[in-house]
Amino acid sequence: MTKRLFHFSNDPKIESFEPRSVRVSSTRPEGMEWLNGPLVWAIDDAHSPLYLFPRECPRIIMWRTNETSCEEAAKFLEPSTSMTAYVEKAWEIRIEEAVLFRYELPTKHFISLDDVGMHVARTRVRPLSCAQVSDLPNQLAGAGVALRTLNSLTPLRDAWSSSLHVSGIRLRNAVGWAEER
Description:
Elements: E1 5-9, E2 40-44, E3 59-63, H1 70-76, E4 83-88, H2 92-97, E5 100-105, E6 111-112, E7 118-121, E8 129-133, H3 136-142, E9 145-150, E10 165-169
């Protein structure tokens, strides 16, 4: 079965996605530096809740792995959900009011990065469809994601040393994140 791939945007009129370099380069493992270069990025359906947020919203999303201990699950995760997403309180209203556009992309030119559903293409990609997505808190809940707010995300720094899978997105925008490094 072929995975469905998506790209989320606040622009409802994208006719094609052109490969472009990332805005802020990341340190990549040796041989993977090309991931900072011109690419079209997509996410698979299972991991698409990672992008049900306004584009610049800093967030930390966690879920269980086969190694997750009961203690760590109790500390970081909401029971009976597949993921727990943490955002700063300052983003709460923006999340509630945001409207996104979910573009479905053809899988033909994409390669999997074997990293939480991420796929990339090195060529222009024309979307198959575009759907408006609103009421993001409800969309997250429907996807099995618990949304939790904190004044700051910095107390969650130790989550990366846990047995959970932890994804941090746009953390450069989180209050105090850069100062505490």
